[in-house]
Design brief:
eight-stranded antiparallel β-sheet, 2 domains, alpha+beta, 14 helices
């Protein structure tokens, strides 16, 4: 037990601040759509899912002088289309008629964009995403070891949102008791984060349900090559084709080919899918709009269907406002536990030492 306690304390002192950043940024991102609805025109507009209206807006956007690579269509909670240009630093929002309402050429121009990059990549690209995944894996270790270390002191349990004072003992007690109460939330948050960022861990955990080879084969795009993009492509016909297959499906993302020979892709969310943008896919030849292939997300192997639930659980895209508040508590708790762990590790012993060395008043 002393070795486990020492390992827990040292690891917390070294990586606690990173976990605090991930927790705080995650808690804020849960409410991103609410922020956009309050700050951007038309962001609170009701969602339009009429295929003809969506097609008209998409054709208008794609026909512009600076056509995006893809359009994430407006959702129930976000009344604007999100335009992506294939460059992480560029993007735009358009209303559901196709008019641009905001655009940016640097992630620093939009708070929700750089906050997303901070949470997912620690502002350092792919290396940062790997580091964030490793930090989350360490965080899982904290949850498990923290519960083990709490057990011998369980009779002293006293839940506090903030330490009774800033002495090391008071902070450690608050850290221990608050941590054990929120352990299930922290475990879910970090487990889903690990699975999304560390493919090897995800494959290992999902292997009992579906082999990694089977999952990889199930998500491969069609191998057929497409022709050149037609100048008069009928987007309405593409959307109508998908809607005919799934009348109750929600049209979510329209993507143009990334390179010559590529296909147009369309993502649709069926009613039973938790993933906000769905994983039901259609691919069309850009030359004539011919349907090349389609994929039903609900017919995917079990391992992939579990994987498709990771993001909506992690980002509180299911469960409505109550679950968003629950995940906010998880993020804020992680921020508090991580930052106080660093503070007590580096500053706490010095404060305790100064208190012990306080001069004793001499007798008169």
């Amino acid at each position: 037990m002393p070795t486990l306690r020492l390992l827990h304390r040292w690891a917390g002192g070294l990586v606690g601040l990173f976990l605090a950043v991930l927790g705080l940024s995650g808690a804020l991102l849960v409410h991103k759509d609410d922020f956009l609805r309050a700050t951007l025109p038309h962001a609170a507009d009701p969602q339009v899912q009429d295929a003809a209206s969506i097609a008209a807006a998409a054709e208008k956007i794609f026909a512009g002088p600076d056509a995006p690579r893809s359009i994430i269509l407006a959702s129930e909670r976000m009344g604007l289309h999100r335009l992506n240009y294939g460059d992480a630093n560029r993007g735009a929002y358009a209303d559901q008629s196709g008019e641009i309402v905001a655009s940016w050429t640097s992630k620093w121009e939009r708070p929700e964009v750089w906050l997303f990059d901070l949470h997912h990549h620690l502002l350092t690209g792919d290396a940062g995403e790997l580091a964030a995944g490793i930090m989350a894996l360490v965080g899982l270790g904290f949850v498990v070891t923290g519960v083990i270390l709490w057990w011998p002191a369980r009779r002293l349990f006293a839940l506090r949102a903030w330490p009774a004072n800033m002495s090391r003992n008071a902070v450690v007690r608050q850290h221990r008791d608050l941590g054990v109460v929120t352990a299930p939330l922290l475990f879910v948050s970090m487990l889903t984060g690990v699975m999304m960022t560390l493919p090897a861990v995800e494959d290992l955990l999902l292997a009992p349900f579906t082999s990694p080879a089977a999952m990889s084969a199930a998500v491969k795009p069609p191998s057929e090559k497409g022709g050149p993009l037609a100048a008069d492509l009928d987007v309405d016909a593409l959307l109508a084709s998908a809607r005919a297959r799934y009348p109750d499906g929600e049209l979510r993302i329209i993507s143009l080919p990334a390179k010559p020979g590529g296909l147009i892709s369309l993502r649709l969310r069926q009613q039973g899918e938790w993933l906000p943008n769905g994983r039901t896919m259609f691919w069309f030849d850009p030359a004539d709009g011919r349907l090349v292939a389609s994929r039903d997300a609900q017919a995917m192997p079990l391992g992939l269907r579990i994987a498709n639930a990771e993001y909506p659980i992690h980002a509180a895209k299911v469960g409505g406002l109550p679950y968003r508040l629950v995940m906010s508590v998880s993020g804020l708790t992680l921020a508090l536990l991580g930052s106080l762990a660093v503070w007590t590790f580096w500053a706490g012993p010095k404060i305790q030492k100064r208190k012990r060395r306080a001069p004793v008043a001499k007798a008169a």
